[in-house]
């Protein structure tokens, strides 16, 4: 059986007919984090698996509520975003931790990953209900850029403070990964060792699928078929950032949701970047950062990062990768 996810990566579940025991894929789908999240546990114990899936979904919903800057729910990210210059806001401990980790990835990625792009992201409008149809003006972009930057926030004993009026945090490039990790944590607490959480193509897997590694297909950024597939097992995450996820065309040019913090405009070096990493937080944050950096700069930055295997579909449709990214059935240049 082949199952295609709505976005990004696709996972291929081999058919397991003929297995002696009633080991099965217990499978549920929920709408969370703005996407369809597929939970699969490979087990004999369907009843407990369903309980674990419900609990994981609940925990992931809490993560969404804690980090979202949309909707009616109140949270400390929104409180910070609405605060005035100099007004200290105590962030929820999970937010505080993820912000510190985001700042560290900001530094490691030479600024390509930036959790302070809230104003710019809202200006481009890719996460709102209605997609805009033409890009903002250069003056608007410059103004939004002036209201961003990791150097313009500071942690004090009283809480986080912004130095520029209007600056807003946005965890859109990392919170989904964090939520997936939290969901997998629940599966582990329930004792499951063979499972997968697939949040719109961003996923983390546990163990194997029966006695085979999980087979994850990678989406072609411009066509409906897969680009190739990878085998993953044990405890691994695989996440793709792509310019096909949220975009519009304007005067023949593609405008999408992954922004270059230097220019304030959609990053132009890549069509998609797939990262295999030990956790979904790392895979999510780095897929965004390496998308912005592009393969040439990204490969240099990766020399100092351990445990990340990466595949780029470059802007010209050629492929680049770290030596340990093992894709099967891969074309060298995509058509
Ligand atoms: P992803 O799909 O994981 O690559 O994340 C893209 C989302 O992260 C966007 O919708 C924005 O909310 C936010 N974002 C865009 N550009 C950046 C960036 N350079 N650094 C951090 N977050 C970003
Ligand atoms: Mg990301």
Question: How would you explain this protein's 3D organization?
Answer:
A hairpin with a 2-residue loop joins strand 4 (153-156) and strand 5 (159-162). The protein has helices at residues 46-67, 76-82, 93-108, 118-124, 138-146, 175-189, 280-302, and strands spanning 10-12, 24-32, 35-43, 153-156, 159-162, 195-199, 202-207, 214-219, 226-232, 234-242, 247-250, 253-256, 259-260, 265-266, 270-277, 309-314, 319-321. Helix 6 crosses helix 7 (280-302). It contains seven helices and 17 strands. The model is unreliable at 1-20 (pLDDT under 50). The chain is globular and about 60 Å long. Helices cover 30% and strands 27% of the residues. It has a domain at 10-44 and 194-321: T-fold, CATH 3.10.520.10. The strands form five sheets. It has an eight-stranded antiparallel sheet, covered by helices on one side. With 335 residues, the protein is α+β, with helices and mostly antiparallel strands. The protein binds adenosine monophosphate and magnesium ion (MG).
């Amino acid at each position: 059986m082949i199952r295609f996810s709505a976005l990004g990566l696709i996972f291929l579940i081999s058919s397991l007919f003929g297995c002696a025991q009633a080991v099965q894929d217990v499978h549920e789908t929920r709408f969370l984090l703005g996407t369809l999240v597929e939970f699969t546990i490979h087990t004999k114990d369907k009843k407990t698996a369903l309980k674990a899936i419900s609990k994981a979904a609940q925990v992931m919903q809490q993560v969404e509520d804690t980090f979202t800057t949309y909707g009616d729910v109140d949270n400390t990210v929104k409180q910070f975003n609405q605060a005035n210059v100099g007004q200290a806001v105590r962030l929820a401990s999970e937010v505080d931790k993820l912000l510190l980790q985001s700042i560290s990835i900001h530094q490691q990625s030479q600024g390509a990953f930036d959790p302070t792009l809230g104003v710019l992201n809202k200006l481009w409008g890719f996460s709102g209900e209605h997609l805009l149809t033409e890009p903002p003006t250069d003056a608007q972009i410059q103004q939004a850029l002036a209201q961003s930057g990791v150097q313009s926030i500071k942690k004090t004993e009283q809480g986080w403070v912004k130095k520029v009026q209007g600056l807003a945090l946005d965890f859109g490039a990392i919170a989904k990964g964090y939520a997936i990790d939290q969901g997998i944590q629940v599966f582990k607490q329930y004792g499951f060792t063979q499972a997968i959480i697939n949040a719109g193509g961003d996923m983390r897997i546990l163990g194997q699928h029966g006695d085979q590694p999980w087979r994850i297909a990678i989406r072609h950024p411009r066509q409906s078929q897969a680009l190739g597939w990878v085998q993953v097992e044990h405890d691994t995450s695989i996440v793709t950032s792509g310019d096909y996820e949220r975009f519009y065309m304007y005067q023949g040019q593609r405008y999408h949701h992954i922004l270059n913090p230097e220019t304030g405009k959609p990053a132009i070096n890549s069509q998609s970047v797939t990262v295999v990493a030990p956790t979904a937080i790392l895979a999510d944050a780095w897929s965004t950062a390496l998308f912005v950096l592009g393969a040439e700069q990204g490969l240099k930055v990766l020399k100092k990062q351990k445990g990340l295997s990466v595949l780029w579909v470059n802007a010209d449709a050629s492929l680049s990768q770290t030596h340990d990214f093992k894709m099967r059935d891969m074309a060298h240049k995509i058509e």
